[in-house]
Design goal:
The complex is a heterodimer. By secondary structure, chain A is mainly β. In chain A, the strands form two sheets. In chain A, strands 2, 4, 5, 9, 10 and 11 form a six-stranded mixed sheet that branches. A five-stranded antiparallel sheet of chain A has the order 1-3-8-7-6, with no helix packed on it. In chain A, a hairpin with a 4-residue loop joins strand 7 and strand 8. Chain B is mostly beta strands. In chain B, a hairpin with a 6-residue loop joins strand 9 and strand 10. Chain B is globular. Classes of the chains: A mainly beta, B mainly beta. Chains A and B meet through strand 4, strand 5, strand 9 and strand 10 of A and strand 4, strand 5 and strand 10 of B.
Chain lengths: ~110, ~110
């Protein structure tokens, strides 16, 4: 059965800290892995990763995929209170166009 | 204007009632999805559709049905609502040429 597991489930840090969120997966015929940020309502897209070892960056956020070890990490440097959210990881197997989501990591950044 | 819209945004109903949630998109995407989100369980796929003639069950389709009336519209129905269908429901779209999903604002459904 296809599965996506995120860790930790929740995390509390102080502004300025660096955090690393983890996403491991077991899927048949991997196509891509996506990261989303969910604040109050709808998830918003952060990154899509398809190739191993290639880092995607956007400002203070970055992500990398390891297809051999079947995981991805999302790094946030110099955290701000606006980074407080649930971060979701999803994997899309090839041939299906479905997305399997993890349960998310709830990040709280204290001022 | 939002690219993916959902109506209603909030709904309270009683057990046994028929409920329809609607989703419209202006992105021109051919793929559309319905998810429900429950605390601690993440997003779970209910149904998805690749075009108006294609409907596929997701992991939790029991108790739900869908209709793809046009490329831009995808409706989710609860034929006889029950309390454990209380959840936040999201519609999402994606283009065939790219894998990113775009989410609607969500519908909070409460079944009493």
């Amino acid at each position: 059965e296809d599965k996506v597991v995120q860790s930790p489930l929740s995390l509390v840090v102080h502004e300025g800290d660096t955090v690393t969120l983890n996403c491991s997966y077991e899927v048949t015929n991997f196509r891509s892995l996506l990261w989303y940020k969910q604040e109050k309502k709808a998830p918003t897209f952060l990154f899509m990763l398809t190739s191993s070892g290639i880092e995607k960056k956007s400002g203070r956020l970055s992500s990398i995929l390891d297809k051999k070890e079947l995981f991805s990490i999302l790094n946030i440097t110099a955290t701000q209170t606006g980074d407080s959210a649930v971060y979701l990881c999803a994997v899309s197997p090839s041939g299906t166009y479905k997305y399997i989501f993890g349960t998310g990591t709830r990040l709280k950044v204290l001022a | 204007d939002a690219d993916v819209t959902q109506t209603p945004r909030n709904r309270i109903t009683k057990t046994g009632k028929r409920i329809m949630l609607e989703c419209s998109q202006t992105k021109g995407h051919d793929r559309m999805y319905w998810y429900r989100q429950d605390p601690g369980l993440g997003l779970r796929l209910i149904y998805y559709s690749f075009d108006v003639k294609d409907i596929n069950k997701g992991e939790i389709s029991d108790g739900y049905s869908v209709s793809r009336q046009a490329q831009a519209k995808f409706s989710l129905s609860l034929e006889s609502a029950i309390p454990n269908q209380t959840a936040l429901y999201f519609c999402a779209t994606a283009a065939s040429s790219y894998n990113e999903q775009f989410f609607g604002p969500g519908t909070r459904l409460t079944v009493l």
